[in-house]
Amino acid sequence: MLYTRREIGKLALAVPAAGLLAEPGGLQAAAKPNSKWAGVQVGMNVPYNFGATPVLTSDEILQKCIDLNVSAVELRSQPVEAFLGVPANLVPARGRGTPAPDPAVQKANAEELRKWRVAVPMSKVQEFRKKWNDAGVLIEIVKYDGIYNFTDDVLDYSFELAKNLGARAISCEIDVAQTKRVGQFADKHKMMVGYHGHTATGPAHWEEAFSYSKYNGANLDIGHFIGGWKTSPIPFLKQYHDRITHIHVKDKTLADKNVPFGQGDTPIKEALQTIRDNKWPIQATIEFEYPVPEGSDRMKELAKCVQYCKDALTT
């Protein structure tokens, strides 16, 4: 999910006013969430899993994780930067029907955004991290959109931002040729990058990325693997477990159709149990993509996904 300029503006305005931890009626939980079962950390891809609209503040995202008893996430960078006060006019406008920006304005805004990013005080980032840690939700992976367009100093900023959020890896979409450059920064910062693939992404793509950098890794989407390659992702998981930062857990059929967990051909239980039995430090990140059934809603379905993973790990 990419954010529009208007949405970033809403986030930036809403976050300082929310004060959910300090104000009555804020973040609520009877106990800290815990979605680590049998040694496997089950996480959530946020805010992606909560849908494109309405745009959520970081506190609203956090509350939904607490409500779902989820204690770790793969978090997109946009809510963090909104909390940090990114000027909304510097965020590129996106979406269908968006007018093409004036190239001169676009270039100027990109330069101002670069300056803003490299000047961000990491103490403010640590404040964001503390809020999430205090609530019991770890930010284990930070997802970046458009990373291949980042200048060198913004790439450095991206890794530093992730480190100060407490992450152990960053993630982004895979562009094999571009992973060579990003991998150089991963080696410099000694931090893994989990490259996310879709149905067209197979073992050879990740293997080439691995060859460029010790810290180039895979965000293995086991659903896309089934839908695209019509074969089990388990052998790849076993062979390259030390390169896999996290898996995306979704259920697809061999015909590449998204379905509720347990109704498709993706070996979700086997993947989770393989991670469990080998004690690999791989987050199992739920990615919600099947249509919400009539009479249900997204949060109810997400709760079912969380329970499915728990049952697979504890039975």
- Helical/strand content category: alpha/beta
CATH superfamily: Divalent-metal-dependent TIM barrel enzymes
Shape assignment: globular
Number of helices: 12
CATH topology type:
TIM Barrel
How many strand units? 11
Run of helices and strands: HEEHEHHHEHEHEHEHHEEEHEH
The assigned CATH architecture is Alpha-Beta Barrel
Helix content: 40-55%
Radius of gyration: 19 Å
Task: Going across the biggest sheet, name each strand in turn.
Answer: 2-3-4-5-6-7-8-11
Q: Could you name the CATH class?
A: Alpha Beta
The proportion of strand residues reads: 15-25%
Largest sheet: number of strands, sense, barrel closure: 8 strands, parallel, barrel
Structure, explained:
By secondary structure, the protein is of the alpha/beta class. The protein has a single domain (5-19, 33-314), classed as TIM Barrel (Alpha-Beta Barrel). Helices cover 44% and strands 16% of the residues. It contains twelve helices and eleven strands. The protein has helices at 5-18, 58-67, 77-84, 103-118, 122-135, 152-164, 179-189, 203-212, 222-229, 234-239, 268-278, 298-314, and strands at residues 36-37, 40-46, 72-76, 138-143, 169-173, 192-196, 216-221, 244-249, 251-252, 258-259, 283-286. It has an eight-stranded parallel β-barrel, surrounded by eight helices. Strands 9-10 form a two-stranded antiparallel sheet. Helix 7 (179-189) links the parallel strand 5 and strand 6. Helix 1 packs across helix 3. The protein is globular. The protein starts with a helix and ends with a helix. Residues 1-25 have low confidence and may be disordered.
